[in-house]
Amino acid sequence: MHADPKGVLTGVHFLDGDHSCCEGALAAGARFAAGYPITPSTEVVERFASRIPTVGGIFIQMEDELAASIAIQGAVWAGAKAFTVTSGPGFSLMMEHIGLAAMTETPCVFVNVQRGGPSTGLPTLPGQADMMQARWGSHGDYGIIALCPNSPQECFDLTIQAFNLSEEFRVPVMMMMDECVGHMTEKVVIPEPDTIEITPRRYTKLPPEEYRPFEPREDLVPDMVRAGEGYRFHVTGLTHDERGYPDMGVAAQDRLVRRLLAKLKPLSNGRSLCETENLEDADVVVVSYGITSRVAQRAIQLARSRGIRAGKFRLITAWPFPTERIRELAGRVKAFVVPELNLGQMVLEVERAAAGQARVIPVSHAGGTVHNPDTILNAIVEAAR
Amino acid sequence: MTPTTTLEIPDGAQNPVEPFLRMDRMPHIWCPACGIGTTVNCFTRALLDSKVNLDKVAIVSGIGCTGRVAGYARLDSFHTTHGRAIPFATGLKLANPELQVVVYSGDGDLFAIGGNHFIHAARRNMDLKVICVNNMTYAMTGGQSAPTTPAQAISATSPYGVFEPTFNLVALAEAAGASYVARWTTYHVKQLSRSMEEVLKKTGFCFIEVLSPCPTLYQRRNKMGDGLDAMKYYKQASKIRNGAPTGECTLSKSGEIVVGKFVDRDRPDYLELLRAQMTESLGERYAEPEATCSC
To answer: Are residues A52 and A150 in the same domain?
Structure first.
């Protein structure tokens, strides 16, 4: 279906990534947001608070991030599309409810505008050190989707994707922005509503007496219901059977937890989003994401101008990680260079995927600013040798 | 006194409250002589007497023994995370104000780990009906100290006796802004049902504390006898004082239990305040919240 025109601010705008993300959420149909102030993400909900009363929806500033990250889930089960926004310490506080959303298959979006950490770290400065936390931060085995925009335009586009993917797979989706992308102001084109594709929530068509809330379809994702419609359904964070009832059995645990991961399989390779350039003849491939990909772009240009066959692999879907695509590349390139604003996170995934077929060279940075392109260039030169 | 409906036993049922329960989940996990089942019985009675549309009632629980109530109620029911039933319920209510949202949880869940959410929901006068079964301990985990465990009591984590001051839940609720505050014990089944019925008909943040026995993990450790002894204590020590100043209603290990309806006031609830403010600021540009959508 197409976007509801009420939420779509069609036109050419000059927006920062945070504001653009908010417009993406509105265009995607989000009519409920709960948040708690934290730099550098607050502008997303500030804009939502300003826009939503004339669009028709709810913004509530909660008492903390634990509250914000579960209030959105209540709203989802009432039938809303909902999201929350945070950064650094707030993301840590939300971990328990990312697990709840994964376990109860509650479609929702968590926006994390990453700053330098650990702890209070660098509140106003960029980092990319929450990438593993986004994947693994809540306890237990589960799957999530994480997207990494590298411009305000992508903050708009990918926020819509984030909502659509959350509905398709019934998982929490992380928008892994960073302070630079969040605060960078650029041209953002918001298209006409009838050109924006929206994935509607898939509600069951079965009558209450036949409906089982966690009975998966063939694609391993169950159909939803919402409160207030006579289904009298039960949702629990405990391990549950297809009826949604707690089941402490080993078989139920195995069936449920394996499905929570397996349902994301289509996304991990064929449908993962990435941007590539010059991979055909590449000796060295720079794997990057978010703001770092824009610095890497310059380094790749410099390398090419020196005659080094450098290629670009920009992760847009960071999770599930596109293992097979990297593995395929590893069979035909000399090396991967992986710059990121952390001391080595996604580079571990590249290493795992490359499985020893190509060298993997991290270009780590503790955060607070972006890389100098020359640092990445030096690594490319070294890798090409 | 409110007239009560005669409970009829539906066809094929053994008990008049069966239609309100997920009978396919019985037997429940609660211990013999635990008071939680009694409160659920009162709740079903209140649902019946208040004639609310059960399809529009949602129940939200946190974690713990009382946290299991949501799983047994044949309503749209949500068993959430520890301490966070109230913010979940807040989202549920705001996204669909037609829903009557009941939060049913324990003292540890609502007042230790969830204490912050409780006071803020009361401050906002969120239209939630919060029922707290207070057994004065963390029972599910084996009887540890809660913010409600009275002085001198022995618990698994206070083997030499509790010395921390306790929360007076009804005073806390009133101070934070609740529209309705009452306390009963599981001995006071009629009064409890009536209070539950009242809050189902009232708008705003409502709080009912129910003192409830935990023979297995609290009484046994404190040599306070069994379930029957708890009933005798509740009967003998309870004093009904409707309208009593909540500050005077502190509970202790074996002292007087002041019960009654303490607060019943009309204050605009969150959504009313929201509408008033937005209409004043935005006039006709304000669009009524329609959080739920076909998309």
So the answer is: yes
pLDDT in tens, B152-182: 999 999 999 999 999 999 999 999 999 999 9
Residues of B within 8 A of A96 (CB-CB) are 81
Whether A51 and A170 map to the same domain: the answer is yes
CB-side exposure of B110: number of CA atoms within 13 Å? 35
The answer to whether residue B154 sits within a structural domain is yes
Distance from CA of A213 to the nearest CA of B (A): 11
Residues of chain B with pLDDT under 50: 1-3
| Number of domains comprising chain A | 2
Domain contains B61: yes
Range of the domain at B53: 34-285
pLDDT tens readout for residues A298-312: 999 999 999 999 999
In this prediction, does ipTM exceed 0.95?
A: yes
Question: Please, what is the angle between helix B85-95 and helix A65-78, to 10°?
Answer: 40
Residue of B168, B146, B167 whose CA lies nearest to B156: B146
- Tell me if A57 and B291 make a contact (CB, 8 A cut-off): yes
* CA separation, residue A62 to residues A71, A355, B98, B117, B208 (Å): 8, 45, 21, 9, 23
Measured between beta carbons, the chain A residues lying within 8 angstroms of B125 are none
Q: How far apart are CA A264 and CA A141, in angstroms?
A: 13
The answer to whether the CB of B169 falls within 8 A of the CB of B209 is yes
Give the Cβ contact number of residue A371 at 10 Å.
Answer: 22
A234 lies within 8 A of chain B by CB: yes
Say which CATH number the domain at B262 has. Answer: 3.40.50.970
Instruction: Report the domain count for chain B.
Output: 1
* Nearest one of B186, B198, B196, B184 to B44, comparing CA atoms: B196
**Domain final residue pick, A160, A195, A230:** A195
Q: Which of A195, A230, A262 is the last residue of a domain?
A: A195
State the residue range of the domain holding A288.
Answer: 274-384
Residues A34 and A146 both lie in one domain: yes
- Asked if A267 reaches chain B (Cβ–Cβ under 8 Å), the answer is no
Query: In this structure, is residue A189 part of a structural domain?
Result: yes
Q: Are A22 and A51 in contact (CB under 8 A)?
A: yes
Contact across the interface for B80 and A200, Cβ inside 8 Å? no
Task: Tell me whether strands A310-315 and A284-288 are parallel, antiparallel or unpaired.
Answer: parallel
Spatial neighbors of A141 by CB under 8 A, at least 6 apart, are: A257, A260, A261
CA dihedral A13, A16, A19, A25 (to 10 degrees): 80
pTM: 0.97
Closest Cα in chain B, distance from residue A224 (Å):
12
Indicate which CATH number applies to the domain containing A280.
3.40.50.920
Say yes or no: A374 and A280 in one domain: yes
